Amino acid sequence: MPLTIENLTPVIGAEVSGIDLNTISADQAAILRELLAERGVLVIRDQNLDHEAHKRVGSLFGTGTLHRHPLATASGSADPEVLTVKATAKSAHAAGEGWHTDVSCDPAPISTSLLYMHQMPESGGGDTVFASMTEAFALLSEPVRALIAQLSAVHDGSLPWREAYGRHPEAGAEFNRSVHPMVIAHPDTGKPLLWVNRGFTTRIAGVSKLESRALLEMLFQHIESTPRLQCRVRWDARTLVIWDNIATQHHAVWDYFPYTRHAERVSAVGGLLKAA
Ligand code: SIN
Q1: Rounded to an integer, what distance in angstroms lies between the CA atom of residue 126 and that of residue 121?
Q2: Is 46 a catalytic residue?
Q3: Deepest in the core among 150, 175, 184, 196, taking most CB within 10 A?
Q4: CATH number of the domain encompassing residue 94
Q5: Would you say 118 and 264 are in contact if contact means Cβ atoms under 8 Å apart?
Q6: Is residue 119 a part of any domain in this protein?
Q7: Closest ligand 1 atom to 263 CA
Q8: Active-site residue 102, yes or no?
Q9: 186 in catalytic set
Q10: Residues whose beta carbon lies within 6 Å of some atom of ligand 1
Q11: Which residue, 108, 252, 96, is CA-closest to 164?
């Protein structure tokens, strides 16, 4: 069966059909990798993925090594390479309900995340909004692009996990904290893109607190309030969404409380980030 590709917007996202991920061929995997680099987000419906199949598909991306999330056990998962993403009537928060890039505090951040949906809320809702960071960078004015291209920013896992969720690292460990350039070159396309996110970025290095706060807030608002950067994905049970975690960020909309939404995420580790 031939692959069918339908773009979600001119800028970001595509629905892909005509593929069974349980029997994905090397040629199909190469097409998906190329399409992901181009579109940032791929929506693939009607898949039957157990953990092994989900992880096998995940290992086709990035370096091929699967990420072990520091909160995998706390999320309720028995497998360190699978993160449970579940919100119920008992939840105080839903994972990913603010704008973020997954785990950007790692020295070599996640290149690709693959979220597989098990259960959608009966109320409807539970969409995920994605934004293109290549487009976010391209839409900034030349003087601002030149300014931020010289700067680096701190990304700290304590910001979402300790401060927002009240979680603690395992005994003797600390959540990761890394400094990354604010404008990086995409590892596959070489395109420059904006690499700060409200979820993990705490401050800009080498400038005053006031300058850091004001500049970051301007960039976060640019990302969050520019609809032409964004696409909105509607899920069904058994949909897999694959996102390029370097070139996009996302926001899981928690508009379905007290109903249950349950998904699982596998992520592939990428390489070190390089300034554009
Ligand atoms: C996440 O940030 O990985 C969760 C995204 C979602 O639940 O839609």
Answers
A1: 7
A2: no
A3: 196
A4: 3.60.130.10
A5: yes
A6: yes
A7: 7
A8: yes
A9: no
A10: 85, 95-96, 102, 113, 115, 128, 250, 252, 263, 265
A11: 96
Residue 276 lies in a domain: no
pTM above 0.85, yes or no: yes
In ligand 1, which atom is closest to the CA atom of 261?
A: 7
Output the tens digit of pLDDT for each of the chain's 276 residues.
789 999 999 999 999 999 999 999 999 999 999 999 999 999 999 999 999 999 999 999 999 999 999 999 989 999 999 999 999 999 999 999 999 999 999 999 999 999 999 999 999 999 999 999 999 999 999 999 999 999 999 999 999 888 888 888 888 888 999 999 999 999 999 999 999 999 999 999 999 999 999 999 999 999 999 999 999 999 999 999 999 999 999 999 999 999 999 999 999 999 999 999
Number of structural domains in the chain = 1
Within a domain: 249:
yes
Query: Amino acid identity, residue 162?
Result: R
225: its two tokens: 């309030």
Domain, as residue range, for 201: 4-269
Please report, as a single letter, which amino acid is at residue 96: G
